[in-house]
Amino acid sequence: MAGRDVSEEYGAYLEGYARVLADASATGRRLSRDELASRRALGERAAEAGLGLRALVGAHWAATRAHWPTGESVSVDDALGAAAQAVDAFAEGYERAQRLAVRQEEAARREFIDDLLYGRSDLGRLAQRAERYGLRLSYEHAVAVARGPVAYEEGDTVLRAVERALIGRFGDRSTLLTTKDGRLVCIAPGDQSEVLAHFAKQAFAATGGGQVGIGRPQPGAAGVVQSYEEALNALDLGERLELDEPMLHAADLLVYPVLTRDRQAMADLVENTLGPLRGARGGPQPLLDTLTAYFDSGCVSAEAARRLSLSVRAFTYRLERIHKLTGADPSEPVHRYTLQTAVIGARLLDWPTKPISSS
What we know:
By secondary structure, the chain is of the alpha+beta class. Helix content is 61%, strand content 8%.
């Protein structure tokens, strides 16, 4: 790099360098506090201008050759020492400005994510900010939320592993991956269900078996909030209903919010249908587990007995006991529907662990 090129491209960031180099080399002294501060300030300006540090360091060494100090009292060690101090101070200022920019960007990104998922900002401004992160809120988006055994934050190895897998498979498809309240969150275009499916697969592996809830595609900024809440509700239902599927689609669980919309009616159904099971030896839980296994196995007694590690005879006896206590026959279609709905309600209301009256 010639001296002319240095002055034309980076002259503003080499201001005073030749003078500092000459003065310090002449006496072999270290750079003064003011001289170091001026180098740091120039480094910050260069970082804010978006220039590359490698090229700037090269420009400094080119300027060192172009303005090499002369004089009998100047030693090579003194000149190189002064140059090294100047370049080090310049790089320190550059890196400080970059760290500040990164922190500001992280804060802006976190603020945007909070506003997006909680719907707390002006929609027009939110849409403009979203484009910066590759989201077009005029389209439909769906949200997936992954829950693991621990809380996750931005920068965690788990998040980076999932992000690498998504980019490696799909590249940049207007997808935003982040964390919220200790969970992994993926926002993707609503017509790209394969992205969320792959996210779920990678999150399951990276979190050691974590469960993923997926909301339905919804339009607009408010749709992102709705899809996010659906994903959270899917995870909540999965926990309360003890669903062990790794991927829970909100669209497949719509019946449960319907069943619990009238909470008092559901509480009455559970109490009136299953309340008599309290009279069983050992309490209602073993018989409630019997009904759960029976319905989960498609009302196949042999399979349900296997799941409970019971003989078919013992399992059949339990069904007969349920019939006697409740008056409802699990093998009869109408009774079966009532019992199954009541069992679902019991799981949603956490009965019999919690009294119906406090649910």
